[in-house]
Amino acid sequence: MECGGQLDDTDKLPQRHLPTAQKKCVRCGKAAVLVVQTSAAFCRECFLNYFTHKFRSGLGKTRVVQPGERVLLAFSGGPSSAALLHLVKRGMEEGTQKKRLRIEPGLVFVDEGSIVQGFDVGQRQKAVQTVSKLAEDTGFPVHFVMLEDVLTDEHSTETDPLVTVSDSEETSQDTTEDVERQVKSPSIDDSSADRLKRLFEDAKSLTAKEDLLQMLRSKLLVRVARMHGYTKVMVGDSGTRLSVRIMADIAKGRGAALPLNTGFADDRHGDVVIVRPMRDFIAKEISMYNTICQVESVFLPMLTTKVAEKASIGHLTEAFISGLQVNFPSTVSTVFRTGAKLGVSHDQPEGHKRCAMCKAPLDTGQTPLQSSVYKTSLAPAGDDSGECVATGQDLGPSLCHGCSLTVADLGDWSTLPDQLYA
Ligand SMILES: [Zn+2]
Ligand SMILES: [Zn+2]
C-alpha cells in the first residue's frame, strides 16, 4: 500500500502529454514528470499529494460522509473504482489518528455477466474470481451480487438472494469455492436471470438498454446497502465519465435529473445516499495514480463492449468527448464545471412527485411544449394534472421524460417487472 518512489522509469506512464524535461513541478520546482487536467506539471511526489489531498478535501468539504459511517464501496474492477478502494484504504491507515478517514467500509461487486452477449459461464466464473482476488486484498468485507438479483422480490423471506460470498475473516480458499458455486448456478432464482435477459432483449435500442442497466445497477447497490446496514454507497464515476453523462443525459431528455446523476451526492433514494468522490479526477489522472501506486484493475466485458461508435447516444457522446479531449485537454473539465453549476431546485412543493422508475423529480407536463413531445410515445393521464403516463388501459406509473422514452422503447409498461418501479 505504499506509494511513490518504487518506479524510476517513466515508460509506464501515459506518454501523450508528458512534458519536456525543462518543465518544473509547480509545487517544489523539481523536474516534473506529469501534467494534470489544469495543465500544471507535477513531480511524482507532489502529484500524489495533490491527488490524495483533492480526494480527502472533496469528502471533507461536502460533509456528506460522517465519521464512523458504514460505507459500501462499489467495485467494478475498473481503474477508477480500483483507485477509489486504494484511496480509502490509504486514508484509513495513513496520517495521524485525527486526520484518518474514519468510516466502516464494505465492498460490493455487481456481476453483470448475464446480459453480456457471448460471455459464457466459464468466462464469467473466471472474471468473478479475478475481481474477488483484488477485492479481498483490501481486507474489507466483500459482497458479491448478480444484476438479476434486482428482479427478485425485495421482501421475499424464503431465501436471501443477495449472498455475501466473502468476509474478511474467511480464508481465500473458502471464498474461491463459494464463488465457483455461485457462478455455476448463475442465480438462486434462475428465472430472474431469464427475466433480466428477456428485458434487455426487449429493448430495441442500445440507449434504452444502457439506461436500464444504469437504473437497475443503482437500485441493486442501494438494496445491498440497505440489507447490510450501509448508509452511503461510494461509486467510482470519474470526471471524464460524468462529463460524458452530462452531455448524453441532455441529449436523452434526462436533463432534469442531471444534478442527481452527476453531483457529488445523490439522495434520491432517501435513506441510502450515492456518493461520487472520484468526480474531481479525469481518467488520465486516475491512470497516473494507479501506475504510481501500482493499483491493479481488470477489464471485464460489459453490455457495450465491442459495439460501434454510433450504437448509442452514450457511446457516441463518449467518442465525441474523448476525441475533443485529445487536442483540447480542458474539454472534460469545462463540460464538467458547466454541468456542476446546475442544482436541484429545493423549492419544490411538499410531496413533489418523483419518477416511478429513476426516482428523479418529475419533469413532465409543465408546459404545452413538453406535453406535445410526450404524445409521440405517451398519452396524457386524462385529468387536468398535466401529467403524462405510459400508454395502456390503466393509468401507468408516473414517469419522467427520459424514463418514458425508455419504457416506450421497451414496449408496454404493464409487461415490465414490478421491481423497475421499486
Ligand atoms: Zn514537486
Ligand atoms: Zn425517470
From TrEMBL:
Its main location: cytoplasm. Residues 167-177 have a biased composition (Acidic residues). SUPFAM superfamilies: Adenine nucleotide alpha hydrolases-like. Residues 155-190 are annotated as: Disordered. The keyword tRNA processing applies. One of its GO terms (cellular component) is cytosol. InterPro entries: CTU2, Rossmann-like_a/b/a_fold. Gene3D superfamilies: HUPs (3.40.50.620). It comes from the Eukaryota. GO terms for biological process: protein urmylation; tRNA wobble position uridine thiolation. The keyword Nucleus does not apply. GO terms for molecular function: nucleotidyltransferase activity; sulfurtransferase activity; tRNA binding. It is found in: Cytoplasm. Keywords: Cytoplasm, tRNA processing. Pfam families: CTU2 (PF10288). Pathway: tRNA modification; 5-methoxycarbonylmethyl-2-thiouridine-tRNA biosynthesis. Plays a central role in 2-thiolation of mcm(5)S(2)U at tRNA wobble positions of tRNA(Lys), tRNA(Glu) and tRNA(Gln). May act by forming a heterodimer with NCS6/CTU1 that ligates sulfur from thiocarboxylated URM1 onto the uridine of tRNAs at wobble position. Belongs to the CTU2/NCS2 family. This is Cytoplasmic tRNA 2-thiolation protein 2.
